[in-house]
What we know:
It comes from Ligilactobacillus salivarius SMXD51. This protein is α/β, with parallel strands linked by helices. It has helices spanning 16-24, 44-54, 72-82, 101-111, 164-170, 180-190, 211-218, 222-245, 252-275, 279-285, 296-307, and strands at 3-9, 32-37, 61-65, 87-91, 96-97, 117-125, 131-132, 141-143, 161-163, 194-205.
Amino acid sequence: MKLSIVMTTYNGMKHIKEQLDSIFSQKRKADEVLIYDDGSNDGTIEFIGKYINNNELNDTWKLIVNKENKGWRRNFVEGIWSSTGDLIFPCDQDDIWHEDKLEVIEKVMTNNPQIQVLTTNVTNLYGNGDKEQSTNQNEKLKKISWKKHIFKVDAPGCVFCIRKEIVEKSKNYYNLEYAHDDYFWKLGLFADGLYNYNRDTIDYRRHDDSTFSVEVRKNRNSEARIKWINMALDYCDDLTNYISDDNTIVEKDKKLSVIKRNKKYLNLRKRFYETGNPLLIFQMSRYKDCYLQSRQLLGDIYIKYISR
Length: 308
């Protein structure tokens, strides 16, 4: 199979060398490495260009500098769409891949053609250099059920492996607000093709100043919550179309019913944030199965009435 890596970068000089080295040192070499830079001004572009030239990688590694700043969401998804591999591996700019990652995942995907999207575990890498392995290293596959919470994503995008077939389907339902990991997780979930492989395949750098972490902290207000709810409602519509259109998807009625219930819950939350009507709290409490966490309803009440 042809293996493609899609990396996005933006002002990543601090850790970029370690990430590039870990890709270059893979036991099973990638057939295509696409690096999409979003307008770095800290030397990242120049460093990557020299790295490719110095290691004579021009045949398989390509650096593409965006003419405009696309933002990390669009940059990743459009990069994935432009890849030509049978298996596509999204890649951050600051992690360290274990040297057998591609070798191991290719074998898993070859032996299990039912898998559309595969994730793995990670070794957490902290700012002081300490590492913490995940607790489960039994190297077994676990299928993720669509009956679990549809908005809960249990793995970062940098440990995804995405089969080309589902990448092609994704072009029909994408919204610019969707993050690549969130999006492909859901597509794999409802195709009954989402699995996790219980083994760490990267050292995953944990830090509080990542773009995503900053966004999460900014979302703790009513306006931001309404924006997220609107995006989630868009997901419901796009997933409904995806399930309805795809003849390979089974149990359509049950899956559409789950999405319909989540849509009702989301509309209730939106009305609560817009109006502050306390009578809606009781109705919202009937949808505890739709909340990401049991205490999230209390969080809604706190943000609306206290935090503002």
